[in-house]
């Protein structure tokens, strides 16, 4: 069985993520969505539990699993018995960061393979951080995050002040 790990912070899950996961399921038997606990980004908006719930409710009946990991991604992949990482590639700006990560991961664990999927055009410019910025200032984010995340996102940002 071919299992791919799709890692990220998913704060929140975007329609771009959903699309990559769905397409990943056309290629792999199972996708493990691995929410990173120790990313360098500053404080998360949604709690870990909220993010896990948001992801799970998007893929009921599909062969996915939502898990969390701490420490090195390559160690986590090994512990899950796979060497395949799945990542989406948006614009050119993603390329350098992704190239660095893919090569660093392969340097520290030589059997690791990162498989990239080009993000659909309609999601090319979508990122969790830009969506949060647009929502924070009252912009319309429908169609950028799954339906069930729209209201909670506005609510969180209001609470945050
Ligand atoms: O899509 P994101 O949110 O930018 O995801 C980044 C993530 C979580 C994939 C990356 O930060 C990561 O793998 N962190 C775990 C620590 C690690 O293994 N670092 C070395 C990567 S070269």
Topology:
Layout lengths: L2 E6 L6 H13 L2 E7 L11 H9 L7 E6 L3 H7 L4 E6 L2 H17 L4 E6 L9 H9 L10 H14 L1
The chain binds 4'-phosphopantetheine (PNS).
What does this structure look like?
The structure is a single chain. With 161 residues, the chain is α/β, with parallel strands linked by helices. It has a single domain, classed as HUPs (Rossmann fold). Helix content is 43%, strand content 19%. It contains six helices and five strands, in the order βαβαβαβαβαα. Strands 3-2-1-4-5 form a five-stranded parallel beta sheet, with helices on both faces. Strand 2 (30-36), helix 2 (48-56) and strand 3 (64-69) form a beta-alpha-beta unit. The radius of gyration is 15 Å and the shape is globular. The model has no long low-confidence stretch (mean pLDDT 95).
How would you summarize what this structure contains?
By secondary structure, this protein is α/β, with parallel strands linked by helices. The chain has helices at residues 15-27, 48-56, 73-79, 92-108, 128-136, 147-160, and strands at 3-8, 30-36, 64-69, 84-89, 113-118. The longest helix has 17 residues, at 92-108.
Binned strand content: 15-25%
Q: What sort of overall outline do the alpha carbons produce when their principal axes are compared?
A: globular
Strand order of the largest sheet: 3-2-1-4-5
Content-based structural category = alpha/beta
Termini gap: 46 Å
Order of H and E elements: EHEHEHEHEHH
Bound molecules: 4'-phosphopantetheine
The average pLDDT value, as a whole number, equals 95
Proportion of residues in helical segments: 40-55%
**Count of DSSP H/I helices:** 6
Number of separate strands? 5
Q: Please name the fourth-level CATH homologous superfamily.
A: HUPs
Radius of gyration: 15 Å
- In terms of per-residue confidence, which ranges show pLDDT below 50 for 5 or more consecutive residues? none
Q: What's the domain count? A: 1
